[in-house]
Amino acid sequence: MTPEIKLSSRTRRPLRHAVAALGVAALAGLGLSLAAPAAYAEPADAAAEALGAVGRLLQEGTSNGSANLPGLNSLLDPDNLRPDGPRGGNGTTSCSTVVHIGDSTSVGIDDAATVGDPAARLSEQYRAVGVTRTVLNADGGRSIVERVNGAPNAVEAIASEQAKGHRGCWVIAMGVNDAANIGVGSTVHADERIDRVMGTLDGQRVLWPTVSTRSPSVNGYSEQNMTSFNQALRRATQRYPNLRVMDLAAQTQPGWFTDDGIHYSGTGSAARNRLYAAGLASAFP
């Protein structure tokens, strides 16, 4: 079935130089959302190793065909998704409809311009694990709370899709801009941001991948800030039985990023699409 796609008109453009002070208006065109500048040290990322085999397989060019996904899925330990999460599964998901809510890192992931191989695009990867309807709603600069140039934030995007009757399973590929906004002084902390999203999705199945950057050229997007947001995601699984957290950050390879250390190349986007699908099958078999 043809997927429904909502994409930003903004073009993802990598930042070429470190920026010490940029406001929201300057970053909006880059698909970023940052409230104010701040300097942070960027310690080495303490990435988990539990899902490392998946990342290595993808880095080596594992086929993206549906026949390979059960093998990848078996490497995604459901205990890493949620302490009391389901075990087993045959590499497919019981989710027939998936609404994928994202920021600029999700813009283009179902497009030929970003992912050249049709089989590696988001809707095809979801289809390979049993999804019959994919709705992609992604916009540059999006965060859970803040708005850029009046565009809907993530909570509003979710409400818009719900108003159209979309229910079922949700992939919330959000947090990069939120982590940065918190890092530069937002008073809306990560736990509250996550609560706002989950409060709109009561009783619906939610997969939320962890976020990451690599030596980003904008200080607010430090790896330290991403790690803090991911810790809040893990705490949230204790509050929301319908939430699964997939440790995508642990699988992300440095070579998947563009020069800005925040966005992803076509290769990185294709690899992430495979992981989204494998994670969905593991979380909701």
From TrEMBL:
PROSITE patterns: TAT. Residues 67-96 are annotated as: Disordered. Transmembrane segments: none annotated. InterPro entries: SGNH_hydro_sf, TAT_signal. Residues 1-41 form the signal peptide. It comes from the Bacteria. Gene3D superfamilies: SGNH hydrolase. Keywords: Signal. Coiled coil: none annotated. This is SGNH hydrolase-type esterase domain-containing protein.
